[in-house]
Design a protein that fits this description.
Helix content is 0%, strand content 34%. It is mainly β and 197 residues long. The protein folds into two domains: 159 residues, Hexapeptide repeat proteins (UDP N-Acetylglucosamine Acyltransferase, domain 1); 34 residues. Strand 24 and strand 25 form a beta hairpin. The protein is globular, with a radius of gyration of 18 Å.
Length: 197
């Protein structure tokens, strides 16, 4: 059974998976689907129709605008923003107030296990690859490769991270996780885990 704090606002048509918790002042909009064991922390916003997998953590005051898609195990840090409008305007060229029918929402996709650091901004449409880490305060304007560590404005890759989240060390032809000892191989700018024996 899901838990919803008394002060949270969860639309009747939203679907919350078993064990999911929505905390104080958070809002989950219409037709959003959250998997099992997710956490939506204080003041976070989950937009209409957003899809989240299992075991995701959305930290305080993060803004996940539709049509974002988050795979299993995604971490979204405090005050992160996922945008959804390529050419944002409050009004049309004739001065009339824009409505939902005056633009096409574009989304951010975050693949399995990836982490987005505090106050980072992901400018849609972008994809953050599996197990990648976006550093705090980064502004992501182009796709992020799986296992990449990206920093800065605009975000650029400065290294690789493993599934445990720690930066990898290069040892000969392999990259090694200092926490788990897992090894990875880089070929043509793509990092893949080595087969575990």
């Amino acid at each position: 059974m899901a838990f919803v704090a008394d002060s949270a606002d969860v639309a009747d048509s939203a679907k919350l998976g078993e064990g999911t918790k929505v905390w104080h002042l958070a809002q989950v909009r219409e037709d959003a689907t959250l998997g099992a064991n997710c956490i939506v922390a204080r003041g976070a916003y989950i937009g209409t129709g957003v899809r989240m997998g299992d075991n995701c953590k959305i930290q305080n005051f993060a803004q996940v605008y539709e049509p974002a898609r988050l795979a299993d195990g995604v971490f979204v840090g405090p005050a992160v923003v996922f945008t959804n409008d390529t050419y944002p305007r409050a009004v049309n060229p004739d001065g009339s107030l824009k409505s939902a029918s005056d633009w096409d929402a574009v989304g951010v996709t975050v693949e399995e296990g990836a982490a987005i650091g505090a106050r980072a901004v992901c400018v849609a449409p972008v994809t953050v690859g599996a197990w990648a880490t976006v550093a705090a305060g980064a502004v992501v304007t182009k796709d992020v490769a799986a296992f990449a560590l990206v920093v800065g404005v605009p975000a650029r890759r400065i290294g690789w991270v493993g599934k445990a989240g720690a930066p990898l060390r290069q040892e000969g032809e392999h990259w090694v996780c200092p926490l788990t000892g897992a090894t990875y191989t880089e070929r043509d700018g793509v990092l893949t885990p080595d087969a575990e024996g």
